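Appendix B, example 12.
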Amino acid sequence: MHTDTTAAAEAADEPTGEPAGGERLRRVAVASFIGTAIEFYDFYIYGTAAALVLNTAFFPTLDPVNATLASFSTYAVAFAARPLGSVVFGHFGDRVGRKSVLVASLLLMGLSTACVGLLPGYGTLGLWAPLLLILLRFLQGIGLGGEWGGAALLAVEHAPRGRRGLYAAFPQLGPSVGFFAATGVFWLLSEAMSDAAFRSWGWRVPFLLSFLLVGVGLFVRLKISETPVFARVLDAQEASRVPVLDVLRRHPRQLLLGAGGMVIAYGLFYTATTYCLSYATGTLGISRTTMLGLSLVACLFLAAGTWLAATRSDAWGRRKLVLGGSGLALVWGLALFPLLDTRQPVLIALGIGGALFCMGVVYGPMGAYLPELFGATVRYSGASLAYNLGGVLGGAVAPLVATRLQAAFGSASVGWYVSAMALVSLACVLALPETRERELLG
């Protein structure tokens, strides 16, 4: 027997068959958080390695600038693969269920990452080494393309009415913790071994740790149940046959504007971390250990901005906070590189930390905002695709463009580039509606 849409929508936010109250919140929070933390740890260790060592390990025949560009290009390959991962995993997530797809994405991402740690360098395999690196990076991107959307939906579709922003804050904290863990491991290795040992084999350790982390993530995720919202979609036999086509036909505006809204979050993060790490150690001559330590401090700003904005979005609205974060980023982009160029550790931490705080204010509410833009039958595909298209535009090209701009016009031009990305996101979100009052089965 079918209930009417309003009644179903009201029931959707009150899951049955799950522990009640705080216990249910903890179970959903841990499952959504730990997966994104592990997945983004995998993704970020590659970015750190690309900035520090992959240029010499896999592209030793190139001059320093072109070797760095080649290293960042392999980094960008995963961003190009992420929309494809969104389509593949989104298809099954909208037809089969959120839980099983999240398990598959974790396995693909984690094993691809771990295999990078086993891959011989250019000195052993020659040209095959960078080619295999690109293949593994592509598979990483496919896996991560399905991760975020599923984790966000796991949180949002279990959430009681009026608390979706709070629930979605947990998967949104995953990147902060993943980045902190990735940077922390590299910092410890830099402290514990010589530069020669680090470049020879030490950089592989963070990748090999992914074998252990995948096991932990699978243990947690296999204990959760399907989301109540999607269970009702299956009960009503309303699952989309080809979700991505339905997104393109019915929600093209939300897709493109949502992707545009994500541009500054990605642009800020990969400029302030991956590129700034390379710029500070290579151009400014600051030690690797110092920069990794400052990045750890700056990561706390990201976590604070993410939690503050995500939890307050239930009361203040998603759109207002994303607009505020984009506006702050527009201004901070112009301050970032003058602060870095002082070579003063406190000011460098302030510059990177401020950029990551702005990113967190944009990123935090997006955990609920993007899923609420799409209907239940295409939500996995729509939210994932918007999120990852924003990654291509903001994250994949940011280190590449920044490297070229700095070489040609100086560091100030990179700041202007960051501010331009903020302006794009500001314009896109201005064209989107507020969504916090929407029904999840609408």
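The longest helix spans residues 21-52. The CA atoms of residues 309 and 361 lie 5 Å apart.
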